[in-house]
Amino acid sequence: CKMGAGMGCWVHGEDAACRDGVQGSSRTYEVVLGEYDMGAGEGPEQRIPVDPADIFVHPKWRSSCVACGNDIALLKLQRPAVLNTQVQTGRLPPAGTILPNGYPCYLSGWGRLATGGALPDRLQQALLPVVDYEHCTQPDWWGALAIRRTMICAGGAEKAGCNGDSGGPLNCQAADGHWEVHGIASFVSGLGCNAPKKPTVFTRVSAFEDWIAEVGDRGHGVLGCQDVRVLGHQGTRVPGCQGVRVLRVLGDHGTRVLGC
Q1: Does the structure show a pLDDT above 90 at 141?
Q2: Where along the chain do its domains lie?
Q3: Residue 218: pLDDT band with limits 50, 70, 90
Q4: Phi, psi at residue 30, to the nearest 5°?
Q5: The domain 105-206 belongs to what CATH superfamily?
Protein backbone atom coordinates (compact mmCIF):
# COMPACT_ATOMS: atom_id res chain seq x y z
CA CYS A 1 0.00 0.00 0.00
CA LYS A 2 1.29 3.45 -0.86
CA MET A 3 0.28 6.39 1.28
CA GLY A 4 0.19 10.11 0.68
CA ALA A 5 0.97 12.98 3.01
CA GLY A 6 1.25 12.74 6.76
CA MET A 7 -0.08 15.05 9.45
CA GLY A 8 1.84 14.18 12.62
CA CYS A 9 -0.23 11.28 13.90
CA TRP A 10 -2.23 10.81 10.70
CA VAL A 11 -1.54 9.71 7.13
CA HIS A 12 -3.87 10.21 4.19
CA GLY A 13 -3.63 8.18 1.05
CA GLU A 14 -5.39 5.37 -0.71
CA ASP A 15 -5.05 2.11 -2.53
CA ALA A 16 -8.34 0.43 -3.34
CA ALA A 17 -6.92 -3.08 -3.26
CA CYS A 18 -5.31 -2.46 0.11
CA ARG A 19 -8.39 -0.99 1.74
CA ASP A 20 -11.03 -3.52 0.69
CA GLY A 21 -11.83 -5.79 3.60
CA VAL A 22 -10.06 -3.64 6.18
CA GLN A 23 -12.97 -3.71 8.63
CA GLY A 24 -12.63 -6.73 10.89
CA SER A 25 -9.29 -7.62 9.29
CA SER A 26 -6.70 -9.61 11.22
CA ARG A 27 -3.91 -8.21 9.07
CA THR A 28 -1.08 -6.17 10.52
CA TYR A 29 -0.58 -2.70 9.02
CA GLU A 30 2.30 -0.30 9.36
CA VAL A 31 3.38 2.96 7.80
CA VAL A 32 7.05 3.39 6.88
CA LEU A 33 8.26 6.99 7.03
CA GLY A 34 11.57 8.30 5.73
CA GLU A 35 11.82 5.53 3.12
CA TYR A 36 13.88 6.04 -0.04
CA ASP A 37 15.57 2.79 -1.09
CA MET A 38 13.33 -0.18 -0.33
CA GLY A 39 16.19 -2.54 -1.12
CA ALA A 40 18.33 -1.27 1.74
CA GLY A 41 18.00 -0.22 5.36
CA GLU A 42 19.33 3.32 5.30
CA GLY A 43 18.71 4.35 8.90
CA PRO A 44 16.12 7.15 8.92
CA GLU A 45 13.11 4.87 8.35
CA GLN A 46 10.37 4.93 10.99
CA ARG A 47 8.00 1.96 11.11
CA ILE A 48 4.79 2.82 12.92
CA PRO A 49 1.91 0.34 13.30
CA VAL A 50 -1.69 1.14 12.43
CA ASP A 51 -4.65 -0.57 14.06
CA PRO A 52 -7.20 -1.76 11.44
CA ALA A 53 -9.86 0.04 13.49
CA ASP A 54 -7.98 3.29 12.84
CA ILE A 55 -8.23 3.04 9.04
CA PHE A 56 -11.06 5.29 7.86
CA VAL A 57 -12.23 4.68 4.29
CA HIS A 58 -14.46 7.29 2.69
CA PRO A 59 -18.06 6.07 3.13
CA LYS A 60 -18.89 6.60 -0.56
CA TRP A 61 -15.93 4.61 -1.88
CA ARG A 62 -16.91 1.68 -4.11
CA SER A 63 -14.22 -0.77 -5.15
CA SER A 64 -16.36 -1.79 -8.13
CA CYS A 65 -16.36 1.78 -9.48
CA VAL A 66 -13.02 3.53 -9.17
CA ALA A 67 -14.21 6.14 -11.67
CA CYS A 68 -17.00 7.07 -9.25
CA GLY A 69 -14.38 8.79 -7.09
CA ASN A 70 -14.10 9.12 -3.30
CA ASP A 71 -10.83 7.16 -3.53
CA ILE A 72 -9.35 8.30 -0.24
CA ALA A 73 -8.71 6.96 3.26
CA LEU A 74 -7.18 8.19 6.51
CA LEU A 75 -4.89 6.16 8.77
CA LYS A 76 -4.19 7.06 12.38
CA LEU A 77 -0.71 6.08 13.55
CA GLN A 78 -0.41 4.34 16.90
CA ARG A 79 2.29 6.81 17.93
CA PRO A 80 3.40 10.21 16.63
CA ALA A 81 6.02 10.44 13.92
CA VAL A 82 9.38 11.91 14.85
CA LEU A 83 9.92 14.88 12.56
CA ASN A 84 13.40 15.43 11.15
CA THR A 85 15.11 16.27 7.84
CA GLN A 86 13.76 13.05 6.25
CA VAL A 87 10.26 13.06 7.77
CA GLN A 88 7.98 16.09 7.63
CA THR A 89 4.24 16.69 7.78
CA GLY A 90 2.30 17.36 4.60
CA ARG A 91 0.34 20.54 4.03
CA LEU A 92 -3.16 20.61 2.61
CA PRO A 93 -4.21 23.17 0.01
CA PRO A 94 -7.03 25.59 0.80
CA ALA A 95 -10.37 23.80 0.60
CA GLY A 96 -11.90 23.86 -2.85
CA THR A 97 -8.68 24.85 -4.64
CA ILE A 98 -8.70 24.12 -8.40
CA LEU A 99 -5.33 24.34 -10.15
CA PRO A 100 -5.19 25.79 -13.69
CA ASN A 101 -4.31 23.81 -16.80
CA GLY A 102 -0.56 23.22 -17.09
CA TYR A 103 0.24 23.94 -13.42
CA PRO A 104 3.47 22.07 -12.55
CA CYS A 105 3.12 19.30 -9.97
CA TYR A 106 5.19 16.25 -9.03
CA LEU A 107 4.16 12.65 -8.43
CA SER A 108 6.45 10.48 -6.31
CA GLY A 109 6.31 6.75 -5.72
CA TRP A 110 7.70 3.27 -6.34
CA GLY A 111 5.38 2.37 -9.22
CA ARG A 112 6.45 0.57 -12.39
CA LEU A 113 8.89 2.47 -14.57
CA ALA A 114 6.84 1.65 -17.68
CA THR A 115 3.73 -0.35 -18.57
CA GLY A 116 4.53 -3.93 -17.52
CA GLY A 117 8.02 -2.80 -16.53
CA ALA A 118 10.14 -3.25 -13.45
CA LEU A 119 9.42 -1.92 -9.97
CA PRO A 120 12.23 0.34 -8.72
CA ASP A 121 13.84 0.04 -5.30
CA ARG A 122 14.44 3.77 -5.07
CA LEU A 123 11.78 6.44 -4.84
CA GLN A 124 10.99 8.04 -8.20
CA GLN A 125 9.47 11.42 -9.04
CA ALA A 126 8.02 12.88 -12.22
CA LEU A 127 6.87 16.32 -13.27
CA LEU A 128 3.18 16.02 -14.20
CA PRO A 129 1.52 19.26 -15.34
CA VAL A 130 -2.16 19.54 -14.43
CA VAL A 131 -4.69 18.77 -17.16
CA ASP A 132 -7.82 20.74 -16.27
CA TYR A 133 -11.33 19.30 -16.13
CA GLU A 134 -12.37 20.83 -19.45
CA HIS A 135 -9.52 19.13 -21.31
CA CYS A 136 -9.54 15.84 -19.40
CA THR A 137 -13.26 15.24 -19.99
CA GLN A 138 -13.12 15.73 -23.75
CA PRO A 139 -14.42 12.66 -25.63
CA ASP A 140 -11.02 11.76 -27.09
CA TRP A 141 -9.38 12.11 -23.66
CA TRP A 142 -10.89 10.41 -20.58
CA GLY A 143 -14.43 11.63 -21.25
CA ALA A 144 -17.03 12.92 -18.82
CA LEU A 145 -18.09 9.46 -17.58
CA ALA A 146 -14.65 8.62 -16.16
CA ILE A 147 -13.72 11.93 -14.52
CA ARG A 148 -15.42 13.69 -11.62
CA ARG A 149 -14.87 17.23 -10.41
CA THR A 150 -13.43 15.72 -7.23
CA MET A 151 -10.48 14.45 -9.28
CA ILE A 152 -7.34 15.95 -10.83
CA CYS A 153 -5.79 14.82 -14.10
CA ALA A 154 -2.04 15.34 -14.52
CA GLY A 155 0.71 14.24 -16.86
CA GLY A 156 0.21 12.51 -20.17
CA ALA A 157 2.01 10.54 -22.84
CA GLU A 158 5.56 11.55 -21.83
CA LYS A 159 5.36 11.06 -18.07
CA ALA A 160 2.69 9.41 -15.94
CA GLY A 161 1.99 7.37 -12.87
CA CYS A 162 1.89 3.58 -13.22
CA ASN A 163 0.89 0.42 -11.35
CA GLY A 164 2.25 0.68 -7.82
CA ASP A 165 1.99 4.46 -7.61
CA SER A 166 -1.57 4.36 -6.24
CA GLY A 167 -1.88 6.39 -3.08
CA GLY A 168 1.19 8.46 -3.87
CA PRO A 169 1.04 12.24 -3.46
CA LEU A 170 0.78 14.87 -6.18
CA ASN A 171 2.75 17.76 -4.69
CA CYS A 172 2.41 21.27 -6.09
CA GLN A 173 4.28 24.40 -5.03
CA ALA A 174 2.16 27.36 -3.94
CA ALA A 175 2.88 30.98 -4.82
CA ASP A 176 4.57 31.60 -1.46
CA GLY A 177 6.99 28.70 -2.02
CA HIS A 178 5.56 26.02 0.27
CA TRP A 179 4.45 22.64 -1.08
CA GLU A 180 0.91 21.31 -0.85
CA VAL A 181 -0.53 17.84 -1.42
CA HIS A 182 -3.18 18.43 -4.09
CA GLY A 183 -3.70 14.88 -5.29
CA ILE A 184 -3.61 11.20 -4.33
CA ALA A 185 -2.84 8.83 -7.20
CA SER A 186 -5.96 6.83 -8.10
CA PHE A 187 -5.88 5.19 -11.54
CA VAL A 188 -4.35 5.06 -15.02
CA SER A 189 -5.65 3.81 -18.34
CA GLY A 190 -5.94 0.13 -19.18
CA LEU A 191 -4.31 1.07 -22.49
CA GLY A 192 -1.05 1.72 -20.66
CA CYS A 193 0.42 3.96 -18.01
CA ASN A 194 1.45 6.69 -20.47
CA ALA A 195 -1.22 6.30 -23.14
CA PRO A 196 -1.81 9.48 -25.21
CA LYS A 197 -4.61 11.70 -23.88
CA LYS A 198 -5.01 9.48 -20.80
CA PRO A 199 -3.25 11.41 -18.01
CA THR A 200 -2.90 9.96 -14.53
CA VAL A 201 -6.02 10.52 -12.43
CA PHE A 202 -5.78 11.65 -8.81
CA THR A 203 -8.24 12.19 -5.98
CA ARG A 204 -8.43 15.97 -5.47
CA VAL A 205 -7.56 16.51 -1.80
CA SER A 206 -9.11 19.99 -1.66
CA ALA A 207 -12.52 18.42 -2.37
CA PHE A 208 -12.38 16.26 0.77
CA GLU A 209 -11.11 18.57 3.49
CA ASP A 210 -14.46 18.70 5.28
CA TRP A 211 -14.43 14.90 5.50
CA ILE A 212 -10.78 14.89 6.63
CA ALA A 213 -11.69 17.37 9.38
CA GLU A 214 -14.77 15.37 10.37
CA VAL A 215 -12.78 12.14 10.79
CA GLY A 216 -10.09 13.93 12.78
CA ASP A 217 -12.64 15.45 15.14
CA ARG A 218 -14.76 12.31 15.60
CA GLY A 219 -13.13 11.48 18.89
CA HIS A 220 -9.94 10.31 17.24
CA GLY A 221 -7.59 13.16 18.09
CA VAL A 222 -6.33 16.14 16.15
CA LEU A 223 -4.67 15.93 12.75
CA GLY A 224 -1.03 16.80 13.25
CA CYS A 225 -1.43 18.54 16.61
CA GLN A 226 -1.42 15.70 19.15
CA ASP A 227 -4.78 16.72 20.60
CA VAL A 228 -3.93 20.31 21.53
CA ARG A 229 -6.43 23.11 21.90
CA VAL A 230 -5.67 26.71 21.04
CA LEU A 231 -6.79 30.10 22.22
CA GLY A 232 -6.15 31.83 18.94
CA HIS A 233 -7.26 32.31 15.41
CA GLN A 234 -6.27 31.25 11.92
CA GLY A 235 -2.61 32.06 11.32
CA THR A 236 -1.50 31.91 14.96
CA ARG A 237 1.21 29.53 16.16
CA VAL A 238 0.18 26.50 18.18
CA PRO A 239 2.43 25.20 20.97
CA GLY A 240 2.81 21.42 20.58
CA CYS A 241 1.95 21.52 16.88
CA GLN A 242 5.54 21.21 15.62
CA GLY A 243 5.82 24.98 15.33
CA VAL A 244 3.56 25.30 12.32
CA ARG A 245 0.69 27.70 11.87
CA VAL A 246 -2.98 26.84 12.17
CA LEU A 247 -4.68 26.38 8.80
CA ARG A 248 -8.19 25.98 10.09
CA VAL A 249 -10.00 26.79 13.34
CA LEU A 250 -13.42 25.21 13.66
CA GLY A 251 -15.96 26.87 15.90
CA ASP A 252 -15.29 29.45 18.55
CA HIS A 253 -12.34 30.54 20.68
CA GLY A 254 -10.69 27.51 22.31
CA THR A 255 -12.11 24.79 20.07
CA ARG A 256 -10.20 21.87 18.61
CA VAL A 257 -7.86 22.59 15.71
CA LEU A 258 -7.66 20.43 12.58
CA GLY A 259 -5.15 20.39 9.78
CA CYS A 260 -2.13 22.07 11.34
Answers
A1: yes
A2: 105-206, 225-260
A3: confident
A4: -150, 155
A5: Trypsin-like serine proteases (2.40.10.10)
